[in-house]
Structures are given as C-alpha cells and as structure tokens.
Write a structure and sequence with these properties.
The chain is of the alpha/beta class. It contains eleven helices and 14 strands. An eight-stranded parallel β-barrel has the order 3-4-5-10-11-12-13-14. A two-stranded antiparallel sheet has the order 1-2. A two-stranded parallel ribbon has the order 6-9. The chain is globular, with a radius of gyration of 19 Å.
Length: about 350
C-alpha cells in the first residue's frame, strides 16, 4: 500500500514524501516586494515537506492585490528569491513558486500611481481588502482588452522564467480562490462575449493558454496549476449545473499538456467532482481536502486509498515546521495561532518549538 511517507517521482523531481506545504499568503515582503532573510529561514525550516508551494507571488505590479506580498517581475525580486531557493535546497527540499495575479481583488492604493485593477469584465467583487489606509471596498475593475489578455499571459510566462532563474524547481499557476484565472473560469466575473468568455469552452481558454505558454517557456514538468471548483471565495459565482462540465473540459485540455501536477483545493461537498477530475488528469494529483479546521493527520488516508497522490497541508505547517515527522510520529502538534498568520510578529512564522 502506498503511504504519504513514500517517495514520488514528480515529473522527474524525486520528492521525499507525499506531504506538500500548501501556498499561504504571508504579507511579509521586504522593500520592492522582495523576499527577505526571514522568508528564507521560514521556507528552509519546512524543507522536510515533499514539496513546498510558496505564498502567492505577483507576476506584475498590477497583479498585486494585498499589501506586502512579493513579486517576481524585477531583477531585485529575482535575486531576493535566490536566497530562499538556496536555503531550501541546502536543507534537502523542493520548492515551487506560486504565481498569483489577483485581478479584480485588491485596490488602486496598492498599485502604481494611476493604475486600476484589471479583470475579465468590469464587474466589482463584493467585499473589502486591508490596506495601509485601512479597509477599502473592492473597486470596479477595468476590463482587459484582447491584446491585454495576451500581454497578461506574457506576464505569467516572464514570472515563470524568473522563478526558474531564481532557482525554483517549478511554478504553480494560481487558478483558485477567486483570483484572475478563476475570474476567467467563472461566469459571474467573466461576462465577455469574445474568445475569452461566453461559453465554458471559452472561459477555460485563459487558464489553458496560460498553462500552455508557461509550459512552453520552462517545461511542462516544471508547471503545475491549482484550482478550487465552486469556491465562492472573493465573490466568485459558478453555477452548480455548469461546474462539472467546465472543470472536466478544463482538465481534459490540461492533461494534453503533461503538466507536473494538478492541485485541487476542495471546498464544500464536491468529492465526486474531485474524483472525476483525478481520474481525468494524466499526472500527479495534489488534494487540499475540505476539512473543519486545519487539515490534520486523517488526511493521510487520502494517499492510501488513492484519492490523491499528494496531500497538501496549510495552517498545521505554519505551527509545525517539521510536520512530516510529527505526522509520522502521530504528534504532538503545536496549535496554530491565527493572530500571527498575516504580517505582524515573527511568532508563528519561525519560532514554534521543534519536535
């Protein structure tokens, strides 16, 4: 029987186990949206994960949706991430950079002067974002032109190349949680009638074309994608009646690209759809399962029963940098302190006690 503690060949990269660290926003970037020495320490401490997937990293200045998040679109940023990848590799780990363009999520005060958030359509999300000026309502974004859609795909490609130049083992494209790729997938945020919208086949085009372009640049074996079907986060609206048709069509197209993996964040009672997507995808399948509270040790059974090849853990990894060892020993576990998760003090970032 395969277990979560067995190794896995991830498209040519040998992972020491099947326990992944899920991407989690940190809001601790340095000046110029750079990674810091603390970033390197944080990820190196967690290098016993079979695979680390970083916090979301914006591919362009206009792709930033939150304060103090890092980028991969300047030479300074690329250089800063080399410290991180070097530290992780020295500790024996593998690390993919998650590339996250937030689209309509964010606010102009977080962007260069004169810029406004962009999206598939000029439809504002309901909700607010925290900024240095306090909470701000999401604004109505500017609809991307056809040429700008292609240019945005180019931004993902450039960021992916920068990630490889910075020493990352690969990249994960963030197509979940209501950010730009997800906004194209969802009819509530994508009301276009051109080649990028109007039908499920057209709404999946941006995700497919971005994955294809990135894979062509850095190699399919170094390109993954994260999805969260039906996830309403960030005011996403996806009709249940269209969900299976949209995502099965998407995964069919992605399978033809021979990507490194598909990473699904399960939100709500969609295990049947997850099973369908797992069967439809021709490569390694990572699952971040739907749970009450942080994903725990019981999720390891998902590898044993074949539901997933890899299970990703979020909050528990923050409080337990040596999580694979604790899972194997069946505890004990440090309790995550959610008050320290975003920015703020270093406690909850690097200072939890070891096993």
């Amino acid at each position: 029987m395969t277990t979560a503690f067995d190794s896995l060949d991830l498209s040519g990269a040998l992972l020491g186990n099947r326990i992944a660290m899920a991407p989690m926003t940190r809001n601790r970037a340095g000046a110029g949206a750079t990674a810091t020495e603390l970033t390197a320490e944080y990820y190196a401490q967690r290098a016993s994960a079979g695979l680390i997937i970083t916090e979301g990293i914006q591919p362009s200045a206009i792709g930033q949706g939150y304060p103090d998040t890092p980028g991969l679109h300047s030479a300074e940023q690329v250089e800063s991430w080399r410290k991180v990848t070097t530290a992780v590799h020295a500790a024996g780990g593998k690390i993919f950079a998650q590339i996250m363009h937030t689209g309509r999520i964010g606010h102009p005060v977080l962007l260069p002067d004169g810029q406004v958030n962009v999206a598939p359509s000029a439809v504002a999300a309901q909700g607010q974002v925290y900024t240095a000026e306090g909470l701000k309502d999401f604004v109505t974004p500017r609809e991307l032109t056809g040429d700008e859609v292609r240019a945005t795909i180019g931004d993902f490609v450039t960021a992916a190349r920068n990630a490889i130049d910075a020493g990352f083992d690969g990249v994960e494209l963030h197509g979940a949680n209501g950010y730009l790729i997800h906004q194209f997938l969802a009819p509530g945020s994508n009301r276009r009638t051109d080649e990028w919208g109007g039908t499920p086949e057209n709404r999946i085009r941006f995700a497919v074309e971005t994955a294809r372009a990135v894979a062509a640049e850095i190699g399919a074996a170094r390109t993954g994608l994260r999805l969260s079907p039906g996830n309403p986060f960030n005011d996403i609206s996806e009709p249940q009646a269209e969900l299976e048709a949209t995502y099965t069509a998407l995964v069919k197209e992605l399978s033809a690209l021979d990507l490194a993996y598909l990473h699904v964040m399960e939100v709500g009672p969609i295990r049947d759809l997850v099973t369908t997507l797992r069967a439809s995808f021709n490569g390694p399948f990572i699952l971040n399962p739907d749970t009450e509270g942080p994903t725990g040790a019981d999720a390891l059974a998902l590898v044993e029963d074949g539901t997933a090849d890899i299970v990703s853990f979020g909050a528990l990894f923050l409080a337990n940098p040596d999580l694979p060892a604790r899972l194997k020993a069946e505890g004990p576990y440090n309790t995550p302190d959610t008050s320290t998760f975003y920015g703020g003090t270093e406690k909850g970032y690097t200072d939890y006690p070891a096993l």
